[in-house]
Design a protein that fits this description.
Number of strands: 17
Structural class: alpha+beta
Bound molecules: aspartic acid
CATH class of the largest domain: Alpha Beta
CATH architecture of the largest domain: 2-Layer Sandwich
Shape: globular
CATH topology of the largest domain: BirA Bifunctional Protein, domain 2
Number of helices: 14
Helix content: 25-40%
Distance between the termini: 51 Å
CATH superfamily of the largest domain: Bira Bifunctional Protein, Domain 2
């Protein structure tokens, strides 16, 4: 109700869009519904109302919102369900700044009305900065342990592990210098688990008496270790933990370690709220499996206008007018300024590996609409379930959804999905080709 109140005070109109549609690419698989009246054809349930809300902008609506179910067939985790609810919004004649202000306002309104808290203006960080400082595009900034890079300070001795690494990166754990050998070894084992995948973990104790004790004492002098401590912002009594190797893998591993340490040390306080905007996401990401570029947000996201020409020469470097709203280490909202020019949209599809025919048959309706003069527009969608879970001091959205599904996508109460009988299959023109048991 508070969301509706805020948005309607801002002049947003709530509009429903259909559920029986065709594929909207948000990066997941579609749930499909066979059509009885159109043999051999299928509807897809919306992964989001993305294309509809853009059409609404072209059609002259100025500010749209909808609290809406979205459907994504992907592997489930604690913070994911196959159907979930978004607060979906779009505005015409806006720039990124307008969107950030409006939805920072919404988030502050909700925090105020639910918890009586005003976190003040939200910090902003570019994607590159977030990755460098936290190894994550959704950093939890309720606590420190920011990353520090040690290549220059650590790659001049005989320690080959560091010398051969693309990145040497560490954090300072508050109070960790008191940990026993056994406790530290348990963390070394933790990062070596296949789920994390680090090869090892170097530690340096910054003792209260000003001395240092490390797992690499053989290779480094006290002055070296003191310099590392300084870069990592360590105080006396802290423990430095350092990972090295390929840059992006090392950052991922250290991010996993930072978050797990924070959980264990009780630094992720459920009643503290630290929102931030992460901006300037890459437009494209390389997919190893298909050996092609994918849209990092979705294919309707606008590249930074001055970077269009880079699409041909250095696609990875192109940044998008795309932003995420992060709360306590979770992405609670994401959106972008959209492409509103037919030719740019065509070019984008080309770079995403669509042939002209494919682009036309799947998204011709949108590009045709742009022909009639589309206003510059942009928007955002909040994951309502996740937002509510975090407001409730938790992260498992299943506990905040009535009748959630389990990890295999089943509703165990009504026992769905279920088989259907042959008559129904026939009516839908479906033949099941099940392997015989
Ligand atoms: N449609 C996007 C999503 O569901 C959000 C947006 O760009 O507004 O993630």
């Amino acid at each position: 109700m508070e969301v509706r109140k805020y948005l309607s005070d801002q002049g947003f109109i709530e509009i429903e869009t259909p559920y029986l549609i065709k594929s909207t690419p948000e990066g997941a698989r579609d749930f499909v519904v066979p059509s009885r009246m159109n043999e051999g054809q299928f509807y897809a349930l919306p992964q989001s109302p993305q294309t509809f809300k853009q059409l609404l902008m072209v059609g002259g609506m100025d500010k749209y919102f909808q609290i809406v179910k979205c459907f994504r067939d992907e592997d489930l985790r604690a913070d994911r369900q196959p159907e979930f609810t978004q607060i979906d919004c779009e505005m015409a004649f806006v720039e990124q700044e307008d969107i950030l202000e409006t939805f920072e306002g919404l988030t502050r309104h909700v925090l105020k009305s639910i918890h009586g808290i005003d976190p003040g203006a939200f910090p902003r960080m570019t994607y590159d900065e977030a990755i460098q400082r936290y190894g994550s595009d959704k950093p939890d900034i309720r606590f420190g342990m920011e990353f520090g890079e040690l290549n220059e300070l650590a790659q001049h001795r005989d320690f080959n592990v560091f010398n051969q690494a693309e990145l040497v990166v560490g954090i300072a754990v508050p109070g960790g210098a008191d940990w026993s050998r056994k406790e530290i070894d348990a963390w070394v084992d933790w990062v070596k688990r296949p789920q994390v995948g680090a090869k090892g973990l170097v530690y340096v104790k910054c003792n209260a008496d000003g001395t240092y004790k490390s797992s690499v004492d053989k290779f480094y002098e006290t002055e070296d270790l003191a310099k590392w401590a300084e870069v990592l912002g360590a105080e006396k009594g802290d423990l430095l933990l350092i990972i090295s190797g390929e840059a992006s893998a090392s950052r991922n591993q250290l991010n996993a370690l930072r978050m797990e340490l924070a959980n264990t040390l009780g630094l992720r306080k459920p009643n503290e709220f630290a929102p931030l905007w992460v901006t300037d996401f890459p437009l494209l990401e390389w997919d190893e499996e298909t050996e092609s570029y994918h849209a990092m947000h979705h294919p309707f996201t606008s590249p930074k206008p001055d970077q269009l020409s880079l699409l041909d020469t250095d696609p990875k470097a192109v940044r998008a007018n795309a932003y995420d709203l992060v709360l306590n280490g979770n992405e609670i909202g994401g959106g972008s300024i959209r492409i509103h020019d037919k030719d740019v949209q065509k070019l984008m599809f080309k770079h995403l590996g669509f042939t002209e025919e494919e682009a036309k048959s799947q998204f011709g309706f949108l590009m045709d609409a742009f022909q009639y003069g589309a206003p510059p527009h942009g928007g955002i969608a909040f994951g309502l379930d996740r937002f509510v879970a975090i407001l409730g001091g938790q992260e498992t959205i299943r506990d905040f959804i009535a009748f959630p599904k389990n990890n295999s996508g089943r509703d165990v109460m009504i026992d769905a999905p279920a088989t259907i009988d042959n008559d129904q299959l026939k009516e839908l023109h479906l033949k099941l080709d099940l392997p015989s048991k």
